[in-house]
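Researcher: We plan to redesign the surface later, but first we want a full-length starting point. Tokens attached.
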């Protein structure tokens, strides 16, 4: 957990608040927290969702592990403490996006349940939707789009999730998509359907 060093700071209440933004945008802001193994389809689905939302003129944005690790979190590796700090920072950024009225999708393995729960706790009830992108190690390894499972098996890559580092499945995710059996379109329909049924988006 990060040490608190900021003191003597005062919260400013800005006049353009979340409610005003959401009214203009015509939808709620929320975080869709995609979690799952490397190669499970998190980035693909987050991107497909972003496209679908953009086509409907919704405000959306994707925070993606591989991309964010080029900047905001480039000082972090893949040991447990660094993954926790990675998810802590993203959790804070996601909270800001929700406050900005944006439907934000985060695509990080986020292997530890406690880290995901902490990111959830930063937001109000209903603002954080955990999306479990379910696909077995066998399925992801069969895809091995980035060739990383091969490197992990040979020992070239250490602490690789699903091979030599743990992945803790969500216990109670709002949404589950099974990319081992569903097409991208089918999984996307499950996610968009959830947003519509629960009033995040109008159908
Ligand atoms: S997380 O565990 O901290 O949430 P994150 O989603 O940011 O991980 O980054 C995962 C991506 O980093 C993977 O998709 C993969 O491309 C790459 N990567 C490199 N090394 C590892 C590793 N040891 N374990 C998992 N992913 C790794």
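Model: Full-length starting sequence:
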């Amino acid at each position: 957990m990060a040490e608190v060093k900021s003191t003597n700071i005062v919260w400013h209440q800005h006049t353009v608040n979340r409610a005003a933004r959401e009214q203009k945008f015509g939808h709620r802001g929320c975080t869709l927290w995609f979690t799952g193994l490397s190669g499970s389809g998190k980035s693909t689905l987050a991107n497909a969702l972003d496209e679908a939302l953009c086509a409907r003129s919704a405000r959306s944005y994707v925070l993606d592990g591989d991309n964010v690790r080029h900047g905001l979190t480039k000082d972090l590796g893949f040991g447990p403490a660094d993954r926790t700090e990675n998810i802590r920072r993203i959790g804070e950024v996601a909270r800001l996006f929700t406050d900005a009225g944006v439907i934000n999708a985060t695509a990080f393995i986020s292997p530890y349940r406690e880290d995901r729960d902490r990111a959830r706790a930063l937001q109000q009830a209903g603002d954080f939707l955990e999306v479990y992108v379910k696909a077995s190690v066998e399925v992801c390894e069969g895809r091995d789009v980035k060739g990383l499972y091969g490197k992990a098996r040979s020992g070239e890559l250490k602490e690789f999730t699903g091979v030599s580092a743990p992945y803790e499945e969500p216990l109670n995710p709002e949404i589950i998509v099974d990319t081992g059996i569903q097409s991208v379109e089918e999984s996307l329909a499950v996610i968009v359907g959830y947003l519509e049924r629960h009033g995040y988006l109008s159908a």
